Amino acid sequence: MTTNVLFAANDALWQDYRDPLRKALAEVGVDANLSTDIPAPKVDYIVYSPGSDLQDFTPYTRCKAVLNLWAGVENIVTNPTLDMPLARMVDEGLTQGMVEWVTGHVLRHHLGLDTHIMHQDGTWRHDPPPLATDRTVAILGLGQLGQACGEALAGLGFDVAGWSRSPKDIPEITCLHGDDGLKDALEKAEILVLLLPLTDETTDLMNAARLALLPRNAVILNPGRGALIDDDALLAALDLGKPAHATLDTFRTEPLPPEHPFWAHPQVTVTPHIASETRPSSAARVIAENIRRGEADEPFLHLVDRDLGY
Amino acid sequence: MTTNVLFAANDALWQDYRDPLRKALAEVGVDANLSTDIPAPKVDYIVYSPGSDLQDFTPYTRCKAVLNLWAGVENIVTNPTLDMPLARMVDEGLTQGMVEWVTGHVLRHHLGLDTHIMHQDGTWRHDPPPLATDRTVAILGLGQLGQACGEALAGLGFDVAGWSRSPKDIPEITCLHGDDGLKDALEKAEILVLLLPLTDETTDLMNAARLALLPRNAVILNPGRGALIDDDALLAALDLGKPAHATLDTFRTEPLPPEHPFWAHPQVTVTPHIASETRPSSAARVIAENIRRGEADEPFLHLVDRDLGY
Asked: What is the average pLDDT across B82-86?
């Protein structure tokens, strides 16, 4: 029997995903009708991206699951018409890309690369950086992405602290939790990495009071979600040197408007939401595996907890 | 009996090393007289740095070993008056620093960080880099430093090829050797890292012919030795885009003179010989261990092969 898979995202994504999805579905042995146009009552699965026109899930009466193309689900998880299982993307390529972006920017700040890149003025500034063992990196959020980044940084010798809502135990990472743990993490963070999911509790987590806890000359990296930071509080804090620099990959509005003060601020580096990019070939395999599981009555992978919001 | 250890290096190094060396010698139980001024016939060990005034080793008749403070020994190994064992520095901190510099600059070029650091112009350039698995890094030289860097890069997912004079077998690194192996390594090197010792055979290794083997848009990192590259050939090759960029930490003359064309060249980044910096605390422990071994008639660590020159 043919399985009807509706691709509900924009045209550009359809161009990127059509062939990889068909290939991945064939590889797992699912006889699928993959299309952007299937009558709602006949749809078995929805492959979804937050930019989709599909906002009312009510007519999809036989749909077994909505399979999100991205890791973040905050734009769909609160949709009151969504009563079927929702899976988020947990893509190895996505985790790998995040590890590369975070490791690259941690090393950039650790080694002081900007000085060398921007000041090739003939001055021999022989001022070796400390070793990674003498540099503390704190990661807020120890989910799939936070843990992978923490392990990569610890592997390079960094002193890594991690903070999460509930207690965790990860070798080579000093795991902190709760309000006291958050204060500890911020106070020791020479480089702070934000990898929390966006929830009511984490929105504006980095407000003026918490920014003030950072050591002088700390650096913030935000490849997580833009709204984890209170933008105005950050701009004010940069003037006080806590943090000394912010490298931001995610924003409340994307693309970040050209007139936003982050672009012109000398202590801010904007990167265009490239830290964690789902690659079609690997993401298609994750989607196909979940459809195979649904058809075989096996449990879905990567289901979202609707109460927690992630 | 007191062991006489002559510190033969400049005053600044004496200030840095005096206390760490005394502490390390005491820790291994050697009763040492560490000084910059000991009559030559009474000297048991010489702690040496290439900038030293000591060039004639003939009067040091009872000296058991010369212990070099740095990894590179090309300025001393050919000294005809040196007939006692010569040990080079193999310092964990030195290897660690090299791994950090190499990993940081590989990720900088892999992720295209310069574009983001230098062009904060309000343009949202959403152009994610490939994953590390799709990027080939070639390392020339698979000694202590080359192997450690290769393993770190492979751990981050890069496709790592390594080349050495004699065959090697290192898991996760594609090991190449000989003339054919060098050609293979250069032809696939999207990022090329030079970590060879400087010998007659490796001087000017990267000449015009070998630079021409690199893929278009390749990047060269040279944290090894300045003279591994023919400077004029490199400057000419950069104009052809092979390589597209060179990040150089070592030079034929250091500090690199302000008028040297490398400083002003837009495709060259100069860093001031900071990739591998011996840290006094860890280096002092290596020196002290070798003196302990000499006094206990145990074999010295890290002896230089005078014929090979490293």
From this structure: 95
Q: Using CB atoms and an 8 Å cut-off, which of residues 197-256 of chain A contact chain B? A: 254-256
- How far is the C-alpha of A180 from the C-alpha of A188, rounded, in Å? 13
The verdict on A97 and A246 lying in the same domain is yes
Measured CA to CA, the distance from residue A307 to residue B67 in angstroms comes to: 65
> Do A161 and A15 fall into the same domain?
no
pLDDT reported for residue A127: 81
Burial A45-82 (b: 16+ CB within 10 A, else e): bbbbbeebebeebeebeebbbbbbbbbbbebbbeeeeb
Measured between CB atoms, does A271 come within 8 Å of chain B?
Answer: yes
Examine the pLDDT at B136 and tell me if it is beyond 80: yes
User: What's the average model confidence in pLDDT over A165-178?
Assistant: 95
pLDDT bin (cut points 50, 70, 90) of residue A294 is very high
Q: What is the pLDDT of residue A115?
A: 93
Is B306 within the bounds of a domain? no
The CATH number of whichever domain residue A192 belongs to comes to 3.40.50.720
Residues of B assigned a catalytic role: 225, 273
Give the pLDDT of residue B308. Answer: 79
Is the same domain home to B139 and B21? no
Choose from A16, A108, A133, A253 for mutation: most chain B CBs within 10 A.
Answer: A108
Please give the pLDDT value at position B241.
85
* Cα–Cα dist A241/A238, whole Å: 5
> What is the residue range of B115's domain?
92-270
Four-CA torsion A192, A196, A201, A205, nearest 10 degrees: 20
Above pLDDT 90, what percent of chain B? 83
Q: What's the rounded Cα separation, in Å, for the pair B304 and B48?
A: 14
Answer for the pair B185, B161: CB distance below 8 angstroms, yes or no.
yes
Asked if residue B43 and residue B7 are part of one domain, the reply reads yes
Rounded to 5 degrees, what are φ and ψ at B137? -110, 130
| Contact check, Cβ <8 Å, B100/A273 | no
In this structure, is residue B121 part of a structural domain?
Answer: yes
B244 shares its domain with B110: yes
pLDDT at A75: 84
What are the residue numbers of the active site of A?
225, 273
User: Is the residue at A264 inside a domain?
Assistant: yes
* Distance to chain B for A299, nearest Cα, Å: 30
C-alpha distances out from residue B92 to A131, A133, B64, B283, Å: 11, 12, 24, 8
For residue B273, CA distances in Å to A1, A286, B19, B177 come to: 66, 46, 24, 28
Does residue B96 lie within any of the structural domains? yes
**How close A70 gets to chain B, by Cα (Å)?**
15
Same domain? For A114 and A78 the reply is no
Alpha-carbon span A241 to A214, nearest angstrom: 10
Q: What is the reported pTM?
A: 0.79
Say how many domains are in chain B. Answer: 2
